Amino acid sequence: MHMKHSCRQVSQLVSDAHERPLSLAEKFRLRLHMIMCAPCKNYEKDIFLISGILKRFQTKGSDEDIGLSKQGFKRIQQALRKASE
Asked: Which of 26, 29, 40, 51 falls 20 to 30 Å from 5 in CA-CA distance?
């Protein structure tokens, strides 16, 4: 699938928003693009859903917890970022 340059930038902003606060200009650019681009809006929803699921399965530090290790979580995040490029 060929993505437009602006869609690539927006997909990166969506990923960045899970790791750091976006600037006001970045938030504005993201929201403006989402109004006009249904595929990017769907991508954002999917990433939000996947991120929420992964966070629930992260290890909480107890031996009784069965979940995804922090390293596993990071590997999945990196794979998702690569897939969006």
From this structure: 51
The confidence band for 58, taking pLDDT boundaries of 50, 70 and 90, is low
| b/e per residue 24-48 (b: at least 16 CB within 10 A) | eebeebbeebbeebeebeebbeebe
Q: How far is CA 33 from CA 24, 39, 57, in A?
A: 14, 10, 31
- Beta-bridge partner residues of 58: 68
Mean pLDDT over residues 11-37, rounded?
Answer: 91
Angle between helices 70-84 and 5-17 (to 10 degrees): 160
d(CA 85, CA 81): 7
Domain ranges in the chain are: 5-84
